[in-house]
Each structure stands twice: as structure tokens, then as C-alpha cells.
Amino acid sequence: MKKVLVLGAGYAGLRACKRLAKSKQDLEVTLVDRTPYHYDATQLYRVAAGSIPAAKIMFRIPDLISPKIKFIQDEVQVINGEQNTVTMAEHGEIGYDYLFNGLGFEPETFNTPGAATDGLQISNIENSTRDAEALQTALEQYAQTKDPKFLRVVTVGGGFTSIELIGELVHMVPKWAKQYGFKRDDFQITCIAPNFLGMFNEKQATYAKRYLEKKGVQFILGVTVNEVTDDGVFYGDDNQFIEAARVFWTAGVKGSDVIAASGYEEHRNRVLVNDDMSLTAYPNQYLIGDVSAVKEPQSGRVYPTTAQISIYEASNAVANFENKLAGKPIVPFNYHSLGTVCSLGPYNAVADVALGGLSVKINGFPAAVLKNIIFKRSSYELSGLKMMLQS
Ligand SMILES: Cc1cc2nc3c(=O)[nH]c(=O)nc-3n(C[C@H](O)[C@H](O)[C@H](O)COP(=O)(O)OP(=O)(O)OC[C@H]3O[C@@H](n4cnc5c(N)ncnc54)[C@H](O)[C@@H]3O)c2cc1C
Which residues form the signal peptide (predicted)? Predict the structure, then answer.
């Protein structure tokens, strides 16, 4: 019997478990996660904005995996590749014959002073819940003092997380205005970033920006933030200051810090994997999801970190693991994106969808409906039928 260890119950780890549970090989599979629940990370911005409760995107891990798989709740500290063991906070060292590492992403601060301490992060249930509480506290402080500074929010970054968060905040403002006694225009959201929605073409990015500007959002683009403090941010070459009660640090992600702690050859905690998702240095290790780096064959650039690709990588890794045990050739990594949807609040979005080899651009309410269908489908699959992430 081969001992297989899966680290992380995110999209990649759970998909790997699903596939491993169906394996005809004689396997003893153990899944490790620091929390007892899986969370839909693509919806964390809604928890951070306070528009949905965290419980709506949390799913108990034992309910999602086959009874054949053992679940251990613990913090992974380091992977000891030479010894084929993993060191965990509570359980000490656990051995494996094969490892599937899906430890996922963490916020990337680019060593910006104050980003980790004074910036609000959106990377898990705990910090997203804290963000919503911090926003509530600022609103309550405004209600008590009428000081407008408590109604100022800055988001750092022009990517998915920042823009989806802004869309959600904009949606919440009318409700907060009524509840806490201010005019809608009094709530000021400023987005500071070097660029804006780079994954969409210019037309769609402009659509998104104009829509949010009409809702009163201010964009300061083409600059980077130099420092985050407890009452604002310094940005740009001339180090200008903008006051804010809350600063969301949504400027990018890196892989899990366990990667750096384990001594892999990495870039921003992501490790370049072979075509079969294994590592050259440790062929019995498969890296899947945001900790892995796979190059696009045409451009040579590393694929972005997405839930979609994480799921695909996990399926590919398990298929190749089984082929390896069966002495069959590898299944090369051949990924085709289904498209991208960026929410601008519950009723608006931009979508670039792959349909029959064509890239179809959809803006507005239909794109928001599409985003909602994707969310509802994944929630239903997770909670309803234990059909977890089936292809
Ligand atoms: C706000 C937001 C919106 C997004 N929107 C989209 C989208 O629309 N479409 C899309 O495709 N992608 C989207 N993404 C990206 C997507 O969420 C990630 O690419 C995806 O979550 C990566 O999946 P993963 O399985 O690699 O890791 P994760 O989802 O990060 O899961 C990692 C798991 O490992 C566990 N873990 C981490 N460290 C440890 C440790 N040391 N010990 C034990 N357990 C640990 C965590 O608890 C977690 O369960 C979005 C991300 C964010 C933040």
C-alpha cells in the first residue's frame, strides 16, 4: 500500500482527493488542512465587504471527501523532501511515499512597509472576516464622531481582488449610508495601482473603470504604493499621502510560505513543475494549484494563479501519478482556459469567455448572471451532492 499525502483542502487539494479516492491502486490517502473547512476563495471579497456571511462559502471538509480518505487538521510547517516527511505543528513528522502539495496562496506585499501590519488582506476566512469587522467599526466611529475620515477606503492593486472588492463595496454603500446617516457620495473609495484589469482587453477594462467611476470611485493609476500606515498610504514618485480609515492590501499573491521554508528553488513561493506536475528534484512530489508554476507553451510565461487552473492541474497530476504507477506514458499538460469573469458588484461584471475556440466578451448584467451561475454551481456541488469538483 502506498502512502499518499495531500496538503491543503483548496480547489487543487480537494480535486486531487476526489480523483485519488477513485483510484484502482492500493493507496492510503491522508488530507491535511489547517482548518476543518474548505472555503470558496473566489468569493472572499464578498465576505471582506460584509455583503455575505463567511458561513455561506465554508464547507466542512469531512463532508466533501470520500470516507476512504483520512483528514487531519493541522498546520504544515515544512516539507522535508530528502526524508519524504512533512513536519506539522501538532502531529510532528508524517511520512509519505507520494505527496500532492496544494497549499495555495498568501498575500504578496513586495516588502512594502506597513502592508502586512496596517493593510487589510483578503486571503482566507479569518482575515476576510476581520476586514468586514474593521469596516463596520469605521462606520460606527463615523456615526459617533461624524468625522469624514472614517468613510475613506483605499484599495491597493488593480487586479481581480481589488476590483471585485470595490464593486462589492459600491453595492454596500447605499445600505450603509441609510444605516449610519451619511450621503452616498460621502463614502470615498480610492484605488491606487500601477495598472488596471490587465487580464481584459482595453475596451472591457475601460467599461469596468467607467462604471466604477460613475459610482464615485477614484482611480490613481500608473503608480505604486510606497508605504501603508494606520491612517492612509504614501504613493508615487513624489510620495504623496492619502488619508484612509481602512486600506485594503490587494496588490497580488504568492504561493504558500511553506515553499520557501522547505528550501525549494522558487520564485514568489511558486515552483516550476514538469509536464506531469511533478518536480525534477523530487519525482514523488506533485505541486498543484497556486504553489506550482507552469509555463504557457506559446508565450513561455507562467500561467496566472486561478481556481480554474488549480483544478485542472490537480486532475492532471493524479492522472500522471496513476500512469507512473502503471508504467504508462505521461499525459502532457494541455490547459485551455474557459474564460474569466470579474464581478463589479452583484449586478454588473465583465466576462471574457471561451466558446468553441472563440473569445466572447460580455459586459453588464448578463456577465453578472454568468458569475452568479458559476458561484451557485460550485456551492451546489460542494454542499448538496458531495459531487465535489467533478469534471
Ligand atoms: C478575492 C479573490 C477572487 C478570485 N476570483 C477568482 C475567479 O473568479 N476565478 C478563478 O479561477 N480564480 C479566482 N481567484 C484565485 C483562486 O482563488 C486561487 O487561484 C485558488 O484559490 C488557488 O487554489 P489552491 O487550491 O491552489 O489554493 P487555496 O484555495 O489557497 O487553498 C489552500 C488550502 O491550503 C490550506 N493551507 C494553506 N497553508 C496551510 C498550512 N501551512 N498548513 C495546512 N493547511 C494550509 C488552506 O487552509 C486552504 O484550504 C480569486 C482569488 C481571490 C483572493
Answer: none
- Cβ 80 vs Cβ 262: under 8 Å: yes
Average pLDDT score over residue span 241-263: 97
What is residue 301's predicted lDDT score, i.e. its pLDDT?
Answer: 87
pLDDT of residue 380: 61
Distance 34 CA to ligand 1 centre (A): 13
CATH class of the structural domain 2-34+74-107+253-335: alpha beta
Give 114's DSSP letter: T
Question: What pLDDT does 70 receive?
Answer: 98
What are the residue boundaries of the structural domains of the chain, listed by start?
Answer: 2-34+74-107+253-335, 115-249
Interatomic CA distance for residues 210 and 28, integer angstroms: 54
Q: Do domains 2-34+74-107+253-335 and 115-249 have the same CATH topology?
A: yes
**What letter would DSSP give residue 42?**
G
Q: Which long-range contacts (CB under 8 A, 24 or more apart) does 384-391 make?
A: 386/63, 386/64, 388/14, 388/15, 388/17, 388/18, 388/64, 388/65, 389/11, 389/14, 389/15, 389/18, 389/311, 390/18, 391/315
Taking only the tens place, the pLDDT of each residue in 145-179 is: 999 999 999 999 999 999 999 999 999 999 999 99
Q: How many residues does the chain have?
A: 391
Instruction: Give residue 372's pLDDT.
Output: 81
279, 273 Cβ separation under 8 angstroms: yes
Q: Which of 105, 197, 374 to mutate to test the pocket of ligand 1 (most atoms within 8 A of CB)?
A: 105
CA neighbor of 257 nearest in space, from 101, 125, 126, 112 = 101
Catalytic residue among 164, 168, 313, 322: 164
| Residue 389, pLDDT score | 42
115-249 is classed CATH 3.50.50.60: yes
* CA–centroid distance, residue 76 to ligand 1 (Å): 16
Sign of CA dihedral 271, 277, 279, 282: positive
pLDDT at 388: 40
